Each structure stands twice: as C-alpha cells, then as structure tokens.
Amino acid sequence: MAIYAIGAYYDEDVSELFISNNIAGPGWDVEDAPELHQFIKTLKVGDFIYIKSAPPSSKYIIVKAIGVVMNETIMEISNVVSIGRNIKWLVTESFRVAKPKEKNNVRMNTMYEEFHPIIQAEILNKIF
C-alpha cells in the first residue's frame, strides 16, 4: 500500500469529474505526458490516491478527496482523463493540511508518491 497525490486541474478543475466517474489520471495524451501514463500503470490495487491542490503561494495543501485503487483495469474516459484507474472515493469532503517544511518538495508535480509522514498521517486519519 502506498499513498499518491494527483492534481486535477487541466485548464479547469476536474475534481468533481474524477469523483463522479470514479477515476483518477492525467488530463494529457501519452504524447504530451508519457511519464504520467506510465505512472498510472504502476498503481496497485489498494493504493490510496488523494486529489490535491497546492498552489505555491498557499501555506496549505487542499485535499479534495481520498480514494483507493479498486482493480487493475486501465480506464479511459475521454472527457475526463486520457488514462486512469478505477477509484472508490472514500472521503469527498475537502480539508486543508499545512504544507510541511521539507527538502523534497514535490507539491507542484501533477502526480507523486506521498512520503511525508505528517501528510500520510493526515490522509490515513481521514479514512480510519
């Protein structure tokens, strides 16, 4: 089990589309973002995903939803994502977490594995 963050802003906020379609993934084609397509393929059943927003000027990470990868199926919903995974959203109420002081700041990336123990604890505490 791992915890991953994913952004949901592709010229507009598509968080609600992710949630209503039980999906998460990048909004770019494989030609534009081959590494993100590969990233989505590496997710495992039982991994946790959270939709995040972390503007550089903000002191907070906004967590918009938390879910779990439900199966190994690679999905495509052309009006939402170019490639994605089937997600069961467990928490859909937004909350804020203070951005931690860190050396490995990946918050601007579209997708990343969450390694910071404080953020991991905040995500798990909302689920359990």
Radius of gyration: 14 Å
Could you name the ranges where pLDDT drops below 50 across 5 or more consecutive residues? none
* Portion in strands: 35-45%
* Largest sheet: number of strands, sense, barrel closure: 7 strands, mixed
Mean pLDDT: 93
Instruction: Give the CATH topology.
Output: ph1033 like fold
Q: Look at the helices and sheets and give the structural class.
A: alpha+beta
CATH class placement: Alpha Beta
Number of domains: 1
Give the % helix.
10-25%
CATH architecture: Roll
Put simply, the count of helices is 3
Q: Looking at the chains present, what oligomeric state does this protein adopt?
A: single chain
> Looking at the structure, what is the overall shape?
globular
Helix-strand layout with pairing:
Blueprint: E1 3-7, H1 15-20, E2 23-24, H2 34-42, E3 48-53, E4 60-77, E5 81-91, E6 95-98, E7 111-113, H3 117-127
Parallel strand pairs: 1-3
Antiparallel strand pairs: 1-7, 2-5, 3-4, 4-5, 4-6
